[in-house]
Amino acid sequence: MKSIEETIKGRRSVRKYKPDPVKDETILDLLELATYAPSAGLAFGKEHPWSFVVIKDKVMLNRLSDVAKAYTLKFIENVPAFDWFRPSCQDPHYHLYYHAPALVMILGEKGSPISLIDCVLAAENFMLAAHAQGLGTCWVEWTKQAAQDKALMAELGIPEGLVIHASIVLGYPDEIPAAPERRPPHVIKWAR
Ligand SMILES: Cc1cc2nc3c(=O)[nH]c(=O)nc-3n(C[C@H](O)[C@H](O)[C@H](O)COP(=O)(O)O)c2cc1C
User: Fold this and answer.
1) Which atom of ligand 1 is nearest to the CA of 166?
2) What confidence category does residue 157 fall into, taking pLDDT thresholds of 50, 70 and 90?
3) Which residue's CA is the closest to the ligand 1 atom numbered 28?
4) How far, in Å, from the CA of 12 to the mean position of ligand 1?
5) Structural domain includes residue 46
6) Strands 51-55 and 102-109, how do they pair?
7) Which residue among 21, 79, 115, 119 sits deepest, i.e. has the most Cβ atoms within 10 Å of its Cβ?
């Protein structure tokens, strides 16, 4: 088993996947590990601080990619900081999910900052646990744009009161990118 340090430092955002599917049991294991994250919702007695949507259906993954790209294009229309991403959104061959065999969404309560924190912590657990098992992940933020397509969200079973707080592709890595540089921790003050 990898050490915690190896697991944390070795996890990368993977953007090239093998076509091999990920077993449902493996995904379920990872979801279970995700729910071991710290959670304010649990402390408040919430039964389900997180809900999950798992998509393995290729047709749905392609459709979601197309819908999210179209809404993202609108979203970044007048945002020069995202000029670099416009050509990808306009490219019909660009796959937002890098052709990964699975996408996991972590859903929380709409309008609750605490729920967002719970879901993000669960997401990190999920990504680290996946890496520890030889799987690759990548957070794909743009999925949130697809939430504007109400019919699609309904098809995915996402009820009105829940929002996508995290969207993570999952699969067996075909290429592991180099680690972006990490700088030493920027400690502003250490009051001893
Ligand atoms: C909130 C958030 C949103 C991200 N959105 C995307 C995304 O839409 N597409 C993508 O390829 N990577 C995305 N990433 C991955 C980052 O680019 C990646 O974590 C960063 O470059 C550091 O690389 P590493 O994860 O390999 O350490 C996102 C990461 C976070 C935390």
Assistant:
1) 1
2) very high
3) 139
4) 9
5) yes
6) antiparallel
7) 119
